[in-house]
Fold each of these.
Amino acid sequence: MNARRFSWTRWVSIVIKEFIQLKRDRLTFGMIVGIPVIQVLLFGFAINSDPKSLPTALVSLDNGRYTRTIVSALSNTGYFRFVREASSVAEADELIERGQVQFVVTIPAGFERALVRGDRPQLLIEADATDPSATGNALAAVNQALTTALAHDLQGVTADLASAPPAVDVRIQRRFNPEGITAFNIVPGLLGVILTMTMVLMTGLAMTRERERGTFENLLATPALPVEVMTGKIVPYILIGLIQVTLALLAARYIFSVPIEGSLLLLYGVVLVFIAANLTLGITFSSIARNQLQAMQMTFFFFLPSILLSGFMFPFRGMPEWAQVIGSVLPLTHFLVLVRGILLKGTTLHELYSSIWPIFAFMGAILLLGLRFYRKTLD
Amino acid sequence: MNADLVVDVQGLNKHFGPRHVVKDFSLQVRRGEIFGFLGPNGSGKTTSIRMLCGLLTPDSGSGTCLGYDVIRETASIKREVGYMTQRFSLWEDLTIRENLDFVARMYGMRQRRKVVDGAIEALGLGSRRDQLAGSLSGGWKQRVALASCMLHEPKLLLLDEPTAGVDPKARRDFWKEIHSLAATGISVLVSTHYMDEAERCHRLGYIAYGALLTSGTVSEVVAQQQLSTWTVTGPDLPQLQARLESLDGVADVTQFGNALHVSGVDAAALERDTAPLRANGVQRWERSDPTLEDVFIHLMRDTKDNFQ
C-alpha cells in the first residue's frame, strides 16, 4: 500500500462532504439557483440596447398639416413617443434638463409656408445626449422617416420638392454631450456603481464579522444601545465613500475631461444621501446574514440589478415598463440622473427633487426592515 | 427581595425553536460567594448565564440579578455585571491596550487612562500592551478577558467556562484571582467542567438538559445523592468492569488510574450483588467515600436515562 497514492474513496468523500455543507447553507443554495434563473430572466427581457418609445416633447410654433405629418412620421419610427406639448422653448428646455424627456422637437413659426415655397425650413431636434447610446439609433432614423412621409404629402404642385435635396433641413442638436463621448456618460455613472459596491459590501461585512468572531456577544454585554452600534459602525464608511467620490471626480475631470457644469457642493450633498441609503442597506444585510459569505452574496444579488437596470450599462428607457418599475426602486437609478444632471447639465437643486425623494424613500423602507432584524439580544 | 442574594431567579424558561433549552430554572447566588455551575455540554449553562446578564430574554419566569429585574432592567444589569464569554471575544485585531480602552469607553468610565493603565500593570503586561490580542497564548487571552470584564468594577462576575483550554498553572493562578475578588465582596458565577475547580467553589449547581438538578455545598451535593462507593485495586480491572456493569445493584463503574470506583444508589443491593466478586480475592475491595466526580458521573448517567 502506497500511502501517497491518489485515493478515489477519500476524494469522493471530500466531494460528498462539500455537497452536504452546501446543502446546509440554505441562502448560498438559494443564490446558486436564484442568481442564474432570476437574473437571466430579469435581464434577458429587460435589457435592450436599442431603446424605443423615448419620451419626446413637441414645441410647435406652426400648427399646419405638415406638423401633424412630421409628428406621426417620427412616432411611426417607434423611437419617438410624444408625451408633452410645450407651449414655449423655455418650458421644453426645463423638461429636457430634468431628464423628463429625451428629445425636444421644435417646429419653427412659418414652417408650412416656407416648406411649400421650397425654402427648406429648419426642423430642430434636440437630444439629451448624456447617454449617447440611448439616442443614436433614434436620430439615425429621423431623415429617412421624414423624407418618406413628406414624399407622400408633397404631391401635385409640390411634388418636385420631394426630390433631393430634402424638403426639410433637419438640425440635430446633441445637448450636454455634443460629441457623444461615451465616457461622459460612463464615468459619472461609475461614481454611483463604485459607491454601491463598496458601501453595501463593507457595512454588510462589518457586523457579520463581529458576529462570526464572537466579539458581537461582548459588544452586546456592554451597555451600548443598538442605535449607537449601528450608526457608530457606519461613520468610518461615510468617510471612505467621500474619499472614493473625490478620487473618482478627480479622475473624471483630469483624465477623461468630464465637464463639471453644476455645483460641487450640491453634488457632495447628493452623494451623502446616496451613501446613507447604501449604508442603511449594508447594515440591514448584515443583520440578516449569518456569516460574511452570506452578506457578500446578498450584496452581489443587489449589485447586479443596480448595474443592469439602473441605466448605468444600458439605456433605462429601453427597458419594458415592469423593468423600469424595478429599476426606479433602486437608489442608483436616481443617483445616475442626479450625478449626470449636475455634472453634464448643470442642473440645480430645485430641478432635482423628483430624483432625490425616491432615494430617501428607499432608505426609510430599508431602515424599518433593518431595525426589525437587528438583534439586541442573542435570541 | 433578599438583600443577600445577588442572583434570585425562579422558573426561567427558554426555547430555541422546538428545543426547550432551559426548563424551570431557579437559582440563588449569595453575595460574595463563588458559585460553581456544572453540567454536561449542551445542558443549558451558557443560555442560563446569558439570561442572567440580559443577553437573552427568558420566555417565561421571573427574578432579579443584583436587585434588577432580569426581563425589564437588562440595561442596569449590563452596567454592573462582568460577563466573560466562553469563546475569546475581545477584538483580535486590536492591541491589548486598545481593547481595554474600548471596553472602558463603552462603560463610560471616568479616569479611563488610569484604570486601563492600572489593569495592564496588574496583569504584568506593561511591556506587551501594544501586542495584538489575537497573538496572545490561551492563558494570557483568558487573563486579559478577565481584566476587561473587571474594568468597570462589576459586583457580579459571570464566567462561562473561563479555563477551557488553559494549562494547570494558569488555571491555578486564575482561581487564586477569583478567590481574592470574592474576598472583596464580588460574587462570582462560574461554569466549568473541571472537578478540581468545582471543589474550589463555595457552592455548586448541577444542570442537565436544561434543568437544575441539585445545588448546595460540595458535601451537601455529595450527600444528597446517597451514593455508596467501593474502590477496587488489583489486576484485570477492565474485565472486572465489564462484569460489574451488568449487575443490577451497580449504578456506575469508573476507572480512575489504577483503581475502579464502583457506585450504587442502594448500599445493601450494591453489597449483595458484588459479594461473589469480592469473595474471589483477585482484587482488593475497600469502602470509600464517593467523590464529587463519582456523584457527577452518576448524575450524568441518570439524566441521560431520563431524557433520551
Amino acid sequence: MSGSHATLPAVETILLWTGKRGVGARRFASPYVGGFFEKTFRKGIAMAKITFPKTGLSLDHIKINGDVEQMKIDYFAASPEVDIERAELLTDYFLANGLFRRDRITALDAAKAYRHILKNRKPVVRHTFGYKKIKGQKGMVRLDLRDKSPFAGSTTSKSKGVILYPEWLALTLWPELHTMENRAANPFQLSGEDADTLNSKVFPAWINFNIMDLTRNKVYGAGEKSSPLLKLHDYLVFFLVSKFQCISHTIPDFKKALGVGLRGVIDEAKTKQAKAGGEEQKDFYQAMIEGMTGIIEYSHSLADEAARLAINAHDSEKDELSEIAGIYRNVPENPATTFREGLTTIWLCWIACHLENSNTGLSLGRLDQLLYPLYRDDVDAGRLTPEKAVELVCHLWLKIGDHVPSIPESGEQLFGGTGSNQAITLGGVDENGEDAVNDLTYVMLRATELMMLRDPNLNCRYHPEKSSREYLERICEVNVNTRATPAMHNDRAIIDAMMKKGESEKQARDYGVVGCVEPTSAGRGYMATGAILLNLASALEMTLFNGRHRHTGDAQIGPKTGDPAKFTSYLQFRSAFETQARWLMKQAVTLNNIAGGIHQKYHPTPILSTLFEGPMEKGVDLVFAGAERNSSGVAIIGFADTADCLSAVEKKVYGDQSLTWDDLMDALEKNYKGYEALQTELRNPAKTPKYGNEDSLADQNAAFIAEMLDDEFGKSPHYRGAGIHYRVGYWTMTSHAGYGRLTKALPNGRGDRENFTSGITPVSGETPGLTKTLNSVASVPSRFLSSGVAFNIKYTPYQSMVVDGENEEAIRAKMIKSFADSVAGYFQGDGNGSKGGVEIQFNITDEKIFRDAQNNPDKYVDLLVRVSGYTAYFIDLNPQMQNEIIERTEYDLFTCKAVTYNL
Amino acid sequence: MSANPLVVRIKRHSHEDGPGIRSVAFLKGCPMRCVFCHNPEGLDPGHDLAFATTRCIGCGRCATVCHAGAIDMDSRGRVIRQECNLCGECARVCPSGALAMVGIAMEEEDLAEVLLRDRVYYQISGGGVTLSGGECAMWPDYSGKLLETLKRSGVHTLMETSGYFDYGKFQEKILPWLDTVYYDIKIIDDELHRRHTSRSNAVILDNFRRLAREDGVDVHARVPLIPGITDSRENLEAIVEFLADCGASSVTLLPYNPLGVLSRERLGLAATGISPSFLAPAEERKIREMFKKLIAQARGNKISVS
C-alpha cells in the first residue's frame, strides 16, 4: 500500500495500522482485518448472510434466561436516580483549572475535562441497589438488584440514572431538587446530600456558563436580556432551538474503534499531530488523544474492579467477573476480535459519548452491519451460538437504557415519557445497493421482541426491490408482539432524498436513523437533526391575526401581512401565510446559528469528533464542520393541522363562499361556541377537504407546505460554513400535544387547546380509508422530507379478533400478512415518479387496553407505545398525550368471520 | 332507467370481499327484495335520502333549506318521506353528514380511476376489485366496460351476485372480464325463497349450474346465515346437495350481518322483522358444526376447514 495516509479512506487506514501493529498477541485475528471486514464493508463480496431457515427467522425457540428476566423486572421497577457524579467532576475540573473565567473552551480543554471524569468516576461493575416508587407513598424505597450483566460500566453511577449536564439544561431542575421524588409523572430519586452538592457547588458555578446564558450574555451582552430572538424563543409557542440542550442527534463511527482499537486511533492521531502545521491543529489531535486515553483508563479501572470483585465471588459469577476483567483490559484499547468484545467496545465508547454530550437522540447506527463480521466469525468458529448472541444483545439493550434525560416537570408537556431516543438501525441495503439483512439482524430483532424496552429505539430499513418478504413479515410480527416497534423506513425514498441533498450514493445507502426518525449517513453525517422544533401552526395563527398570536396577546410578533378579511383570493391568503412562515423560519435559523457559534466557542466535542469520519483527516472538530457531511435538522409541528386550515379557508371562504371571514374569526374567538354546526362541517372530511383522504385540494396544500419549508430551510445559511444548509423532518415527540395546549381554535375545526396531529400523520378521525391515507401521505414528495417523517398508524391487534381462542394462530398469521401487504404497498409508490412513503410506525393496541391501562397503570408497566418517532411506556405519558394516542384512527386489517369449507 | 347505475359507495382496503386487499364498488339497484338484505341502500336504482340519528347534531340547517316541508325536527326519522322530493338540499347543508344522499353518478372511467388507485396493494396482496351491490349484473354494459378496463390494467376482478340475471347478457358482457364470482345461494325450497326474497330461485339455481360449467372463471358459492330463514338443517342440507351436484368444490358460510336493519331505518323503509343483533358465537359455532357434519355426510369423506 502506498501513498499519503491523509488521503486513505478509513478502511484502508485500518488495514495499514494492523499491518504495522501485528496481531500476534491476540487470541484470534481480528475479522475486521483483511478478511470479513474487507469483504463485507469494502468489496461487498456476496457471502452467506442468512443461515437461519426461512421459516425460523423469528428465532422463537430462543427465550430469555432467568438472569435477564430478573434484570428486566428490576429495570421496570426502578425509578430513575439523579446522578451528580459527572456534573460534580466536571465542575471540579473547571474550577481547578480556571475554565469558568475563560472566554473560550478549546477541544483540548474539553478533552482533558472529560478524561478527568472518565479517570475519576466510580467504576461500577455490579449495581447492587436502586430505588422504586410505591404507589400512594411519599419518597422512594430501596430496591435490591441482582446485576449479572456481561457489560460493566454505566453512563452514570446508578443503575438507571438521570445524567446531569450543567452546561446544557440541568439547571432547569434546580427549583425541584427537593420535590422530584413526588412528581405525579416520572419522579426522580435524589438524596438530600447530593441535592446540597448541587445547590451549593455545582449549579451556582454554571449560572452564567451554560449555553443558554452564554448566548444571552455573550451575544446580547449582560443586561440586554430581552433580545427579540431569545424572547421569541422564551414564548415557547413559536419554536425551540435545541442548541441550549444538546449538540448530539447524530451517529458516531465505531468502525475504527472496533477495527484498530482506541490505541490504533491514538497512534493515528499522533502521526497526524506530528505532521500538523499550526498549534491549534496539534492541540486538536492532542484532544483526540486525551479523550481516547480517558476511555482506555476507564475500561482499565473497570477491569481492576471486576478482578477485585472476582476474588470473593464464587462459581459462575467468579468466572464471569474474571472474563469481564480480561475483556476490559483488552478492549476498547485493542481491536475487537469477538462479538462480545465488539459489543463491549461500542458500549464503552457509548458511555464516553454520553459523558461528553447530552443524552438527547445520540444514536448507535447500523449495529447489525457493524458487528456482523464478528458475529459470523464467532459462530463459524463455534465460539458463539445464536442463543448466546440474543442473550448478549438483550444485556446490551438493558445497558443502553440505563440513563434518562433530565427533563424538568414543566418539560413533560412537550417531551413527556421520553427516553434518550437512542436509535438503532437494522436491515436495508449495503453500499452496493444489495440486501444487507443478515443473521444478526434477526438476532437483534429477537432480542428487541423479548425485552420490549423503550430505549433503544429500533428502526428497520426496507427496500421495495431488494428486501425480502420474509424480512418484512418478521418486522411486522415484531410490531404485533411488542405493540410498537420497530419503525420502518423506505430505503428507496430516503436514499433518493439524501442524494438530492448532496450525499453520494454510497454515503446515502449507509444511512442510519437518528433520534426519532431522521436518516443520517452513519458515522460521517453531522446533521444535528433535532436542532430546531418549529410550530408551523404559529405561522398560520399570525396570518389570521396580521402578525399577532393569541398566546402572546397584543404584541406584534411577525410581519404585518394584512387583515385576511380584505384578501380577495385564496392565493393572497396563502401568500400571507408563506410570508409569516418564512419569517418564522428565518428567526429560528438565526437563533440556532447564534447558539451554534456559542457551541464553537464553548463546547467543542473532541470525543465524538474522534469517533467520526472527517475530523481526523481534516484536523477539525465537528462543531467547525469537521465531518464529511454537515447540516442541521428542523422538526415541524402542526403540519396536518396547518395544511387542513389552508384547505378549509380555500374551500369554504373562497371556493364555496359559504363562510365569511367575519363569521370564521368570530367562531375562532368563541372557540366555536354558538358555531357548532360550522365546527362540525369544518371537521367533516366529506364536507371540508382534509389532507390524508386522497383529496387533491387538501393534498396539494400539504405538498405546498412541504415544498416551501424545504426551499426556505434548504437555502438558509448555517453557522458551520458556506454551502451548509438545513433539512426538514416531520416528527413531533409529544410536542404536538404540548403545542396544542398553547394554541386556540383554528379554521380546520380544531378547538382551543386540542392536540395537534403527530408528525406527518393526517388529522385523526378524518381519514377513514387506510389505503387512501397511505396513498395521500406517500404523495407528499419524498425529496422535501430529507430529515425523515413520523407517520403513525394504529392497527387493531389480532387478539381482538379471536373469540374463545378459536383459530388464533390462523388469525395471527392473517394479520401479519395483511400488515406486511399494507407496508409494502405504502413503500412501493405509484410508479409515476413517486418513490413511495418515507416512513411508517405503528401502535398495535386497541382502545380497550389503553383505557384499562389508564385505570390500572400497575398492570401495564411495560405497555409500549409509539409516540411520534420514539417509543415510550404508555403509563409514563401525561393524560393529554395518552388521549392523543387513544384518539388516533384505528384501522382493522381484516375481520375473520366468513368461514370456507371444502366440499 | 338511465344507462348508468349510481354508485352507493366505494369501499377501500376491504379484506372481506375476496382475496387480498380489495376495493369494492357497490352499484345501486336490485331486482330482489330480500327481507334480510344487509345493504338496502343498493335496492333502489335511484337516489335515496338517508338519515343517521346518531350523527345529527340538531342544528336545524336542513329545516331551513327544505322547500317541500319534509323535515320534521321532532320526528325520529327526521324526514317526512311522502313530502320529500329528493332534491338533496338538506344533505348538502348538513354539517355532520347525518342527512346524506345515497347514489353518486359516476362515469365508468371515473369509477375505474378510483378503483385503480390501489393497484399496488392489489398486486402485493393478491387482491383486486370487487363489484357488489345491489345487483351489478343489472347493468351489463356498465359493469362489463368497467371490468374490461380493470382487467386490461391487470387487476383481479370479482363480482358478488344474487344470481338473478339474464344469463345471455351476463355471459356476453360481463363474464369475459371476470376472474371470480361470489354467488349467493340462499334458500333451495322455491316457495320459501319466493317468500323471503320476492323472487323464484329457478333462474338463480339454473344460472349457477351453467356458470359452474364455464371455463376461465372461478365460481364460489356463499350462504348468508339468516337466523330462522337460511340456517335450518333442511335448507343447509339441500344447499350442500345442490352444490355437490353442480360439482362445486367449496362453500363459504357468511355470518349473519344485521346492519341492514339500521340501514332500512335510515332510509325510512319499513322493518321486515328480522333479528337486529349478531349471532352469538356459540350459536354460530353450532351451525358451523352442523354444516360440517352435513358436508361430511354428503360426501362421505373428510372435510377440512380452510
Amino acid sequence: MTDYKASSSSSKHGSVSSSMPSSLLVAKPANLQCKDFQEYLRTRSPDTLEKLYNYPTICLAVYRELPEIARQFVIRILFVEQPVPQAVVASWGSQYYAKEQASSTNILTELNVWRTTTIPGGLSAWELCPTFKKNLKIALLGGGKPWSMSHTLEKDSKPRDIAFLDQYAMSRWRCVLHYMVGTGGANKGQGSEVISPDAVRILLHANLMKRDETGITITRQGFQFLLLDTQSQVWHFMLMYLDTCEERGLSLPECLSMLFQLSFSTLGRDYSSEGMNPKMLAFLQHLREFGLVFQRKRKEGRFYPTRLALNVTNKAATVPAVVLEDEKSQESGYIVVETNYRVYAYTDSPLQVAVLGLFTELLYRFPNLVVGVLTRDSVRQALRGGITADQIISYLEQYSHPNMKLTESAIKSKSPLPPTVVDQIKLWELERNRFTYTEGVVYNQFLSQADFITLRDYAQSINVLVWQNERTRTMVVTKNGHDDVKRFWKKFSKNAS
Amino acid sequence: MDHHGEEEDPKEYRWETGYEKTWEAIKEDDDGLLDGAIADIIQKAKRKRQAQKTMQNKLGMMRHLYLMLDCSESMSVPDLKPTRLLCTLKLLEKFIEEFFDQNPISQMGLIVLKGKRAEKVTELTGTAKLHLKALDGLHKINLVGEPSLQNGLDLALKTLKVVPSHASREVLIIMGSLTTCDPIDINITIDALKQESIRCSVISLSAEIHVCRHLTQQTGGTYGAVLDDSHYRDQLLSHVDPPPAAQTQENSLIKMGFPHARQDEGKEKDPPLSMCMCHIENADEPSKITSAGFHCPQCHSKYCELPVECQTCGLTLVSAPHLARSYHHLFPVQNFTELVYNGQAAICYACQKPLTEATDKNVYRCEACSQIFCLDCDIFIHETLHTCVGCVTIPGAAAQVHARKPQAPPMGMLLGSSLGQRF
Amino acid sequence: MEKAAAENDDSGSVSLLVIVLDTNPSQRIVRQNPDNLSQCLDATVAFGNAHLMQKAQNKLAVISCHHHATDFLYPMPVKQLEVRQVDGQYEVFSLVEKTVKQRLSHIITNAPKITQPNESLLAGSMSMALCYVARMQRNAQPGVKIHSRILVLTGSNECASQYMTYMNVFFTAQKLGIVIDVCALDKSLSLLQQGCDITGGQYLRLTQLDGLLQYLLWVFLPDPKTRQMLVLPPPTKVDYRAACFCHREMIDIGYVCSVCLSIFCKFSPICTTCHTVFKVPGPLPPKPKKKKKV
C-alpha cells in the first residue's frame, strides 16, 4: 500500500500532454455570461422573490418566462382556492412529455411560484405562492392599485411619434457603445461620446471595460457584448445596473417593477412620473440616459418609453410579427452575406464598421457601404480575441438585410445566411478545439489488477473517471473527485489488509 | 422522333408568332419604380385565372390516376434547375396537393421507372400524405439505366384493370429519357390499355418521342413537351382538372357506403379491437390492433382512413364531407364587380383592412350583398373559401344563398334536397 | 447557444386566436336569463386576455355574431381606443376589455328589434374570421410563422341551411392549417363537431355556465402544440354518415349521382335533382361490368 501512496503523490495536472503551459490550459478565459430573466430569478433568494412578487408587473413578466407547461399549470390553479394534490397535477401532463413536465415542476418550485403543502389526508399538494397568485390575478383581471406611471395626463401638445422615439433611443444607446469602442484610442473627438460616471461604473462593474495604466479600455467580454443584439445588450446592461442599484440606495424590487412597467407599456404613448419617489425619479433619469425613455426636460412629469424598454426580456417580441397596412415597418438589417464569403454592409456608422472589422477583412469603404470578406485569418483573429463562432453568426443573422430573409434557403433553414458560410465559421472555430483540457490526478503503479479494477469502477460509479488503461493499470480522475477516490482507496486498502 | 407539335399547330414555333413587346406592359411610376406596375400585372393575372374558373366543370367524380415517374439516368440532366428530377419532385408536391384538393374522392398511385424496371412506390390511395412521403424519399434515389415504358404500363394496367368502370382510369407519365427499353413489342401493351380504356398522358422533359405520342393518341390522352419550368408547371397542373374524357363518360349511379365509427348504442364500453384492412398486407407498417376505424357497412371490414374502396366487397367507402368538398364546383361564388376605389367603404368587409386610395386602386363588390372587398379577399373568397362573406353574414342575403344550396337535415349531417333549380 | 437556437425556433411563431362569440339574443340561454350573456362575455374577455398573457407576441381578435350582423369587437379596424389604467390590470388587457364591451353595447343598442327567434349565422362569422386570419398570414414578416385558431362560443342550435358554408369554412381552415375549437353552451352541435374533427380542434359541450372560464382555460388555452403535452378530453367519435335526398334518412349504403353527387337510398333510372338519365337500368351490381367503348 505504501507503493500506492507514492504514486498518488506523483500526480500531475492535465490528462493530455501538450506543449502549452498548464496554467493556460486549465484557466479557460471567462466568456460573457448572459443570463436571461429566468436564470436571474433563480439566483435570487426566496425572500427577494417574495418581495418581487408584490408587483403585478413582475408577476406578469415571470409568468411569461415560464415554460409552456408550467404556464398552463399556473393558469389552471390560479382560480382554485384550495391547494391541488400533486398527484392530480401530475396527471394533467401526457406521459410522453414527462421530462418537460418534471423540469417545469422544478422551475415553478425554484422560482417560488408554488410550494408544497399537505392537505388533510396527508397528501402533498401544490399551492401557488399567495403573493404571486394575488398579483397575477390583478394583472390579468384588474383590481388593486394602478401602476405607478399611469396617472392621467393632459394631452401632449407636441406628441412624439414612434419614428422619433426609435431614433432617439438608438442614438442614446449608441453613445454607450461608442464610448466602449471609442475610448480605446483612434477616433477620439467626434467618435467618443461622454457618458455619465454612473454608466462608466456599470461598464466597469460588468467587466465590459477595465481600468489599466492607459485609462479605461474595452475587455474581451466587452467585444462579445458588442456582438449581441441590441435587446440582449440592454437586458445585460440593466441586469448589471440592478446589481449595483442597492449600493446607490435604490430598492431592487422597485427598480425591477419600474423596468417591467416600461416593458409592458405601449410604444408611442406618454406616461406620467407624477407621484414617484425621488429614488425612482433618479432611476428614471438613468433610463433616460441610456435611451430607454424619452423625456423632454428633467423636471417634466411626462415621459415616453422607447423600443429599447419594451419587452426587455424577450427579443422576439420587439419586432412586430405582423405588419398591418396602417403601420410602418422599419428595417434594421443592413448586412448581405454571399456564398463567396463577401460581406456587404450598408452602413455609415463607424460603430457598426468597427464591430464588423472584428471578424471580417474590410476591403472597400464607400459613403454608405462597406465591403469585406470573411477569411480564415480574420475569423481566427476574432476567435482568438475570445469571440465565439456562434456570436459571429448570430450577429450576422441579427443584422442581415431583409432581402436575405426572403431567399428560398432562408425560408427553409430559418437562417438568412448561406449555409456554407455558417458551417465554415463553425469549422474554423472547431479546428481550434482539437484538445479538451481536464484537470486531473493520475493513479498508477497498482500492485494488482484487482485493486486497479476496484478503484476504477468506483471512480466510474461516482462519475469522476477521466481516462483509464487496464494494461498499464493507469487511471486519471478529475481533480474534484480526487478526495473521494483517495478516501475510498484508504478505506478499501485498510479492509483488505 | 417527330418535330414538336408540327402536325397540329403550325404556329407552335416561337419565331413564327408575332413580335411580343413584353416590356411595354411595364411602366415606371412617378418615383421611377416598377413595383407598382408589376403588382398590377400580378393582380390582373390572378383575376384572369379566377374569371376562367367560373366555367362550369362537370365533375369527374372518381379518378384513378397512376403517376409514372422516369427515374433513369436522363433525369439527372440539369436543363431544368437544379436537375430534372428535383424540379419534378418539387412540382409534383404541388400537383399532389392540388389533385386531392380538387378531386376529393379520387385515388392516385406512384410508379417509378429505372434500370429497365418498374417499381410501385405507392399503391392507389386517396391520401396525399402517403405520396408526399414517398416523394420525399425519392430525393435521394439513384438515377441509373434506362426506363422501360412497357414494364411501367403493364404494372399500372394490372392494377387499373380491376378498378370499377364508372371511375376514370388514367396514367400520367413524366418522361425524361428519349428512349425506352422494353421486353417485347409495346404495341401489345398499348392495345391492352386501349381495351381497358385507360387514358395515358405524357409530359416529356426532353423532346417529343414518337412512341409516347402514339400511346397518347391511341388511349385518348394528351401529350406535351415542356419548354421551361413554368411551362412544365402549367402542363402538370392542367392534369388536376378532370380530363374531357371523363365528361363523355356515361353517367351512372354509383353505389357507395357511408361507414361510421361503430358505436354500440347505450353501451359505454369501447368497441372490440380489430385490425384494419388497409395495412394488413403492408409489411413496413403492419396494421395495429385498435378499436377506432371505419367499418364497411356491407362486409364490416375495417379501414383506418376514408375514402377507400373495400378490398373485400368492392364497395366505395366515403364520408359525407368528402362529397361536400366537391360542391364548390357546382356552386361557385359569382364574380365580383371591379370598381375604382373612391371611398365606397372605409374597410374591407371581410378582413377589416382599412382601404385607402394609395394602396387600393380597385375594390370589388359582390352583386348579391353589395359589400365591398379588397383585392386579396376577392381572390381568397373565389380561390379558397368559395363562400361570399357578405352573403353568409347578412341575414337577408344569407337566406337567398342558403335556399339554393344543399342543406343538412335537422339531424345535422345530411345533404339537402334543394339542388334541383340550377340544372 | 443551443438554448438560443431552441428559442429562435419558438420566436418565429405567433399564436393568433380569433374568438367567435355568439351574441344572438335568440339563444335559449340568453332568453332564459339575459345575465348569461354578460357572464359569457366576461369569461370570453378573461380567456382572451389569458391568451395574450401567454406570450408577448400572441394576437387576439374577437368577433360577435349577432342576429342581424357580424362585427369585430376587437381589435378596432383603424384606430384603437385610448385607454389609461384605472387599476392594476395590464394596460393591454384593459384595452381588450373596454373595446369589447363598448363595441358590443353599441351593437346591441343599434340592433333592430327581433320579432321572432333568429338563427345565428355562425358559419358566416367563421368565414369572416378566416378572411382576417388569411390577411394576418399575408402580412406576416418573413420568417414568422403564424399559428391560428378559431374558437366558437355559442348557445345556438346549428342550422342545417348553413351546411354548405360550414363545409367550405372547414375545408378552407384545413387547407390553411387553422384549428377550429368549439365550445357548445347548450345543445350538442354535430356539424361543428365535424369541423373540429376535420381541423384537429377540440369540441366541448357544457350543460351549464358555472365555471365557464375554468373550462375554457383548461381545454382551449393551450395552443395545439402544447395540447399534445397535456391530457385533454379525447376526441368524440363523429358520425360522418350521409342522408339520402329522397327521404332524408341516415343511410349506410346509398347511390350517388356521378354528375351532381346527390345521394339516394334506392336506385332510380333518373336523377331527381339534375335529371340525368342513367344508362344502366336496374339495380347496379356491386361490380358493374365493363360497358364503355366496346
Amino acid sequence: MSASDHPVDHDVHSHGDTHGHGTMRSYVVGFLLSAVLTAIPFWLVMTGALQPGATAALVIGLAIAQILVHTVCFLHVNTSSEGGWTLVAYVFTGVIVFITIAGSVWIMYHLNTNMMPGMPTGQVSGTP
Amino acid sequence: MADKLDQQSRNEAAASPTFHLMEDEHGHGHGSPTMLGFWIYLMSDALIFAGLFATFGVLSTSYAGGPTPREIFELPLVALNTAILLVSSITFGFAMLAMEGGKVRTVQLWMLVTGLLGAAFVGVELYEFANLIAEGATPQRSGFLSAFFTLVSTHGLHVTLGIVWILVMLVQLQQRGLHVENKRRLMCLSMFWHFLDVIWIGVFTFVYLLGTIR
C-alpha cells in the first residue's frame, strides 16, 4: 500500500479505531447491568433489609461498580481509544476526585471532633 | 519482514510529505483532537462536581435544627428520576448506533426521545425542589440544604444545557445531515450525556440513599 492510498483507506474505515465505539451488545449489556446495580441499592435502602452500616458499604460498592459499567459500556473508555489518553485522564481524574472528597470529609470530621471539645456538635455544625 | 515494510512505507512517506494525512485527521470525526479535548473538559467538569460532593460531604449533617434527609427526601421520586436518566442513556446509545449506520431520521428520532426523557428528568427535579421549598426546606435553611441544592441543581443545569444541545443538533441534522462535523458533535454530545448519568450515580448514592440511612 502506498502512502497516497492511505487517506482513502482511512475514509473507508470512517468509523476508525481511534475512539471507542459502542455496539448494540455493549449498550444493552450496560443498560441491564446498570438497571440491576441501581435497583439493588434502592431496594436495600427502601426496605431496610440490612443493618445501616452494611447497607452503606454495599450501596457505595454498587455505585462504584455502576460507574465502571457506564465508563466501559457507554463512554467506551479503554486502553485503545485516543491512544489510551482518555484512560490516563480518567484514572488521573478518579484519583483527584477521591483525594478531594475523602480528604475534605476526613479533615473536616477531625476538625469538628477535635477542635471544639466543649461545644456540642449540633452547635459546631449549626452555622447555617 | 513487517519491520521492513514499515520502513519502506515510512521512506515513501518521507519522500512525499503527507500533509493530506493531517488534513484527513483534522476533518475526521474520530481522529480529530476534538474528542480528546472534549474528554479533558468532561474530566475537569468532574472536578467541579468533586468540589461540590466534598462540600456536601462536609455539610451533610449540618441541619441547623432544620429538616433531615430522612424527613424530606422522597426515594420513589428519586428512583423514577434515576430510571428516566438511565433509559435516556440507552436511547442516546441507539442514536449513536443509527449514526454509525448513517440513518439520519433514526438518529433524530432517538435524539428526540432522549431530549424528552431529559426534559422529564428536569421536570421531576423541579417538582421535587418546589415541594421542598413549599415545606420550608429552602437552600438558606441550613448548610446541608445549601450544599444539597447547589450540587443537585448544578447537575440539573448540566442536563438542561444537554437538552439545549440536543435541540441544536436536531436542527443541524435537519439542515446538513450526517456529515463529518455533525458526527463529531454527536459523539461529543453522547459523551456529555453519558457523563451526566455517571454524575447522577454519585448524586443518588451519596445524597439520597446514604442521606436516608444516616
